[in-house]
Structures are given as C-alpha cells and as structure tokens.
Amino acid sequence: MLNTLLDISQIIQNATIFNPRHWGNVGMNSDTLLMAVSELFDLLEQRDVAYVLVGGIALLNYVEGRNTQDIDLIMALEDLENAPEIQVTYRDQFFARGEFQGLQIDILLTANPLFRKVQQEHVTTLHFQDHDVTIATVRGLLLLKLYALPSLYRQGDFLRVGIYENDIASLMYEHHPDMNDILAELAPYVSDSDLRSLQEIVQEIEQRIQRFRTSHPSS
Question: Are residues 38 and 16 both part of a single domain?
C-alpha cells in the first residue's frame, strides 16, 4: 500500500481522454481537472465532511490496471446537503450522484448500515497534494464490492459483474485477505441466499488464483 495517494486528476484525465465517447468534448483540460479535484477536497475539509474515498481510484492504491472516470465517496446525507456546491443529479435511499466543476461524484450514503460500517471501521489516510484523504482499506473495498454483486446479477449487468469480480479477484490475489472472515462480517447485511452465492463466487475466484499460482510459481 502506498503512503501517498495516486494522482487522482491524472487517473480521471487518462480515463476520459482515452474513452472515444469523450473525444468530442474539450471542456476540461488537465489544469482545470487538477484544480477541480483539489477544490473538491478543499470543500470537504472546509465543511468538515466525514467522507471515505472508495471505488476505482481507491482500488488503484492496492492493485494495478483499474481505470475510472469519476470519484466515489461514502458520505452522510447531511454532509452532502452541507456542500451544495456538489450539484446532486440523482438520489435514492442509499445512493446519490452529483457533479462538481465537471467531476462526476458517486456517493454511497451512510443511511446504508454497511456503508456506515466501512466509513467507521475500515479506512486509512493517504496524502494527496495538500490534503490528507480518507480512503477505504482493502477489507473495506472487498466488503463493498461483494455487497454490490448480487444486485448486479439480478439487474443482468454482465459488464459491471465482470468488473466487480475482477476487482475482487485482484485484491484477493495481491493481498491474501481472509475471505471467510470477510464474508462472516458481511453476512448480517445480505440475505442468506445472496451470502451462499457470494461464497460460491469467492470459492471460484480462489480456485482460479490457485490454478494461476500453480502455473506461475514465482507469482
């Protein structure tokens, strides 16, 4: 794990520039993107917002090869409402989406007990520019990814299922977490049938990792 957070603006810039859907949009260059990211964290600090950075940017501090075009945060609704500069474009009980100076921000609201648990128990602090940024740990990210999977399966969202399962596999491969312990912690927040499905998915991933390590002993 790094002690310094990766350059968030560069990550988002690369994801945006190399996405053909954005080739016709020249509204945000690297300087304005860097400023927007910095000003977002300035705003969160000024308003004393208790947030946690999650999603693809957080994941990149633990594994390679993930890209993202937005910022994902865990946040309480009252903190979000205390930062009206983040223009909310969608909100339901547990999720919100907002925009800040051209940045898309996806927000997991702490009204969800698991999101609140991750915010309170599974975080660390990394440095980005002049900011100390609160970021989810490997365990926190695994809890969030696993929690989301059953819903993605029910939605038939094959592409996101693949992304999330690959994120889980990458974290498992790089960091050797105790998955039985993580699933036990997750159990109160999912149904029994979803937990059984997640146990099967984790077992399949563990078998895949073991096959890979058998084929590549030096890995």
Answer: yes
Note whether 118 and 182 are same-domain residues.
no
Q: What angle do CA 206, 208, 211 make, to 5 degrees?
A: 110
User: Which residue matches tokens 């590549």?
Assistant: 216
d(CA 182, CA 92): 27
Kindly report, residue by residue over 140-155, the tens digit of the pLDDT: 999 999 999 999 999 9
Question: Of 184, 154, 148, nearest to 168 (Cα)?
Answer: 148
Q: Is residue 147 part of a domain?
A: yes
Q: Is residue 145 part of a domain?
A: yes
3-state secondary structure of 8: helix
Q: CB neighbours of 131 closer than 8 A, spacing ≥ 6?
A: 38, 41, 42, 45
pLDDT digits (tens, 9 = 90+) for 194-210: 999 999 999 999 999 99
State the residue range of the domain holding 84.
8-136
The beta-strand segments (E) located in the chain are 52-54, 71-75, 87-91, 95-100, 103-109, 123-128, 131-136
CA distance 205 to 216: 16
Cβ burial, residue 53 (10 Å; 0-12/13-18/19+): buried
Token pair of 40 as six digits: 């977002």
